[in-house]
Amino acid sequence: MKQPLSIKAKILLTLFGMILGFGSLSFFLFQSSLFHTSKAQIEADWNILGEMDYITGAMPISLKELDGKMVKVPGFMVPLEDDQKKVTQFLLVPTPQACIHVPPPPPNQMLLVDMKGGTDVKYGPIWVHGILKIKTQRTMHGDVSYTFDGLFIENYQ
To answer: What contacts 43, CB < 8 A, 6 or more positions away?
Structure first.
């Protein structure tokens, strides 16, 4: 079975291609291959995320092992900014009814997502791809048990 190229090898190939004059093509291929490799991560669903005891912080090893890993999580976007088209930060929740209300959903049912460069607002179910961090954080919308460095989103299929 053929092994995928490492990120270092992809960068070197891109630079080499740019020197030879294939810059835009090699950059496009590099970007595409990064997205393909980043899509091949672990799926973390709300059943496992919900296993964290948000009062004591106790969690099963299977959840603890996801900390700092590249994962994809399904859910619904709750924008935290007033812009109706693009957001850089949002909450990801398991159901469309789990919006911001009083009282807010339990902390283990909310992810605080920071999207580098922002993303379009989505109103249906989505997948968010990125790095999961198990860290309780207090926000003005309630406590969240997870933060997420979002890389990209896609429609849920």
So the answer is: 71, 72, 73, 74
Domain count for the chain: 2
pLDDT, one tens digit per residue, over 126-147 is 999 999 999 999 888 889 999 9
Are residues 31 and 54 both part of a single domain?
no
Print the domain residue range for 12.
Answer: 7-39
Task: Convert the pLDDT of each residue in 85-99 to its tens digit.
Answer: 899 999 999 998 876
Q: How far apart, in whole angstroms, are the C-alpha atoms of residue 86 and residue 82?
A: 9
Pairwise pLDDT comparison (51 vs 141), residue with the higher score = 51
Could you tell me if residue 87 is inside a domain?
A: yes
Q: Is the pTM of this model over 0.85?
A: no
Residue 3 pLDDT exceeds 80: no
Using CA atoms, how far apart are residues 125 and 19, in angstroms rounded to an integer? Answer: 42
Which distant-in-sequence residues (6+ apart) come within 8 Å of 92 by Cβ?
A: 73, 75, 76, 77, 78, 110, 111, 113, 126, 128, 148
Secondary structure (DSSP) of 48-110:
HHTTS-TTT----HHHHTTTTSEEEEEEEEEE-SS-SSEEEEEEEESSTT--S-SSPPPGGG-
